[in-house]
Write a structure and sequence with these properties.
This protein has 207 residues and is of the alpha/beta class. The chain has one domain (9-206): P-loop containing nucleotide triphosphate hydrolases (Rossmann fold), CATH 3.40.50. The chain is built from 8 helices and 8 strands. The chain has helices at residues 21-32, 39-49, 52-62, 69-80, 98-104, 118-126, 159-183, 195-206; strands at residues 9-14, 36-38, 88-92, 110-115, 128-131, 137-139, 151-152, 186-190. The strands form 2 sheets. A 5-stranded parallel beta sheet has the order 2-3-1-4-8, sandwiched between helices. Strands 6-5-7 form a 3-stranded antiparallel beta sheet. β5 and β6 form a beta hairpin. α2 (39-49) crosses α3, α4 (69-80) runs parallel beside α5 (98-104) and α6 (118-126) packs across α7 (159-183). 30% of the residues are buried. The model is unreliable at 1-5 (pLDDT under 50). Bound molecules: BIS(adenosine)-5'-pentaphosphate. BIS(adenosine)-5'-pentaphosphate is lined by residues 15, 17-23, 38-40, 43, 60-61, 64-67, 72, 93-94, 96, 100, 124-125, 127-128, 137-139, 156, 165, 194-195, 198.
Length: 207
C-alpha cells in the first residue's frame, strides 16, 4: 500500500489494552519518520502537569473509564494540526468509538487492528512498567529506563481498571473495527507473537 514515504501516510492503530499499540507505534514512528500520537499519552501529560484538564480527567483514567469525547477530540485535533504531522502520523488510541470517529473526521490510509485475547492482555498489562521521564514502555524486571528515568506502574493497570478498559474496548471500539473493515482500510495482525514478529507483520500490511 505504501510505496514510498514521499506521500503523507495516516496510520491508525486499534486494539485492546495491552495489545502493543504504544510499543509498535514507537517503532513505526522511527521507521517512517512520522510522529506517534497517543491519546492516552496526551491525557497523561495533562495529569502530570496538574492542568485543569488533567485534574478533571485523572480519576476517570485511573478507573479505566473513557474521557468525554469533546475533551479528547480537541486535544488530538490540536496535536494533528502541528507541522510535524504534515507527512503523516500514527494515531494510537483515538478514535475509540463511533462518536469520536465522526467528530475527528479524518480518513486513514490504513487501520491496523492488533488482535489479542483478554487473558494475554491482562498478563501483559500486569507486568508493564513505563518511564516517568521519556515514556518508554517495558515489561518484566527492568528497574530503570535506558535514559536513567524511574519506571512506574500505571494506576489503570490494576485489576478492576483493566477489566473496565477491556469491557469498553469490546463494547465501543470493536464496532469501529467493523467500520474500517467495511471501508476497506482494515488490516488485522496477530498481536500474540513477539514484538519483532508483530512489527514485521504490521510493516507488511501497510507496505
Ligand atoms: P491508553 O494509554 O491509550 O491505554 P490503552 O488503549 O488501554 O492501551 P495501553 O496503553 O494499555 O496498551 P498498548 O496497546 O499501548 O500496549 P503497550 O504497547 O503499552 O489510554 C489510557 C486511558 O486514557 C484510557 O483508559 C482512557 O481513560 C483514556 N483515553 C485514551 N484515549 C481515549 C479516547 N480516545 N477517548 C476517551 N478516553 C481515552 O504494551 C503493553 C505491555 O505489553 C508492555 O509491557 C509491553 O512491553 C508488552 N508488550 C507489547 N507488545 C508485546 C509483545 N508482542 N509480546 C510481549 N509483550 C509485549
Amino acid at each position: 500500500m505504501i510505496d514510498s514515504m514521499k506521500d503523507a501516510i495516516r496510520i491508525l492503530l486499534l486494539g485492546p489494552p495491552g495489545s502493543g499499540k504504544g510499543t509498535q507505534a514507537a517503532m513505526l514512528s522511527e521507521k517512517f519518520g512520522i510522529p506517534h500520537i497517543s491519546a492516552g499519552d496526551l491525557l497523561r501529560e495533562e495529569v502530570a502537569k496538574k492542568s485543569a484538564t488533567g485534574r478533571n480527567v485523572e480519576a476517570m483514567m485511573n478507573a479505566g473509564k473513557l474521557i468525554p469525547s469533546e475533551i479528547v477530540t480537541e486535544m488530538v485535533r490540536q496535536r494533528l494540526s502541528k507541522n510535524d504531522c504534515s507527512r503523516g502520523f500514527i494515531l494510537d488510541g483515538f478514535p475509540r468509538n463511533t462518536e469520536q470517529r465522526e467528530m475527528l473526521g479524518v480518513k486513514f490510509d490504513v487501520a491496523v487492528s492488533l488482535e489479542l485475547e483478554d487473558t494475554l492482555a491482562i498478563a501483559r498489562l500486569s507486568g508493564r512498567r513505563q518511564c516517568l521521564d521519556c515514556g518508554k514502555i517495558y515489561s518484566g524486571d527492568a528497574a530503570e529506563c535506558e535514559c536513567g528515568g524511574k519506571l512506574y506502574q500505571r494506576k489503570d493497570d490494576k485489576p478492576a481498571a483493566m477489566r473496565e478498559r477491556l469491557k469498553i474496548f469490546h463494547r465501543d471500539t470493536r464496532p469501529l473495527i467493523d467500520f474500517y473493515r467495511k471501508e476497506g482500510t482494515l488490516k488485522t495482525v496477530d498481536a500474540s507473537k513477539g514484538v519483532d514478529i508483530v512489527f514485521a507483520a504490521i510493516c507488511r500490511s501497510i507496505q
